[in-house]
Amino acid sequence: MKHFIRSLCFLAAALPTFAATKVATLHPILADLARQVGGANVEVVEILKPGADVHHFEPAPKDLAEMRGAKLLLASGKGLESFLDKLRDSLGAGVKLVEVGAKIPSIPFEEHHHEGHADKEPAEKDKDHEEHDHHHGAEDPHWWHSAENMKRASRIVADELSAVDPANAAAYAAGAKAASKRFGELKSWAQKEISKIDRKDRLLVTAHGAFGYFCKEFGFEPISVLSIGRSDDASSKHIAETIEEIREHGIKAIFPEDQANPKVLAEIARSTGVKVGEPLIADGTAKVAHTFETMLAHNVRSIVAALAPAAPVK
Ligand SMILES: [Zn+2]
Fold this sequence. Notes:
45% of the residues lie in helices and 10% in strands. The chain is an alpha/beta fold. The protein has two domains: 2-106 and 146-184, Nitrogenase molybdenum iron protein domain (Rossmann fold); 119-141 and 197-307, Nitrogenase molybdenum iron protein domain (Rossmann fold). The chain has a four-stranded parallel β-sheet with strand order 2-1-3-4, with helices on one face. Strand 5 (203-206), helix 8 and strand 6 form a beta-alpha-beta unit. Helix 2 crosses helix 6 (147-164) and helix 9 crosses helix 10. It binds zinc ion. The site of zinc ion has 7 residues, from loops.
């Protein structure tokens, strides 16, 4: 036994020293992306873990301690993490904060918000905008619902990793390429599935305004009952508008979310007779699916199940 232990010690000493680059992440989708791009060259520490609420998370002192020694701290950006300015001051030297979403084209919230806004007077529009967007400014922060954005993100992560660990730059570029290929394949699968839904039925009614990028990529019109930050602030006027739209367009289903099933959805379903679909994964932090790939697959399956015409009974 002693001899065996001595041999192990000898082996450990003989191995070349290998230090993985420590990367801390503020979203589970970014943790998965860092692992896909970085492979064995990175050690990922998830600060915001699956199950957490991205809209209300604040790092605690223990989180700051966990960030120590990280070369990169990956955040979603686009205003999702309202604490970043404060955090920047308390980050140790040598930790680079990267807002991955910063270089990804934004959809302004108003562009994909409830179409009822379109016929309002500008002053009224501004007021609505203020009420709905006080947390996040005008950008929609849920950019990771798009395969194209995830491809961009994989390149951004590869570039940042290469900057702090140039010796492995080729491996990071290859990791980003492989991840992009997978995201592209998933997008093709999703497009094929979604083609089963009649074009006129591609309206996506969800609890909060999280699906703008998904809708843009896959040809849906988004209608959200709550605001972009998931506060339970649906005004009775907004609910009435949603009900009107459901009736006008003959919308077949509305979707709750893994973290939001406001009473108002049940009320809307009751008064319109519309069915309530499977809960969608809106913020990418569901314990059962917290990678881009599992989230998108779940959402597409749920949406197609509720909106595509039922197969004829034989
Ligand atoms: Zn959200």
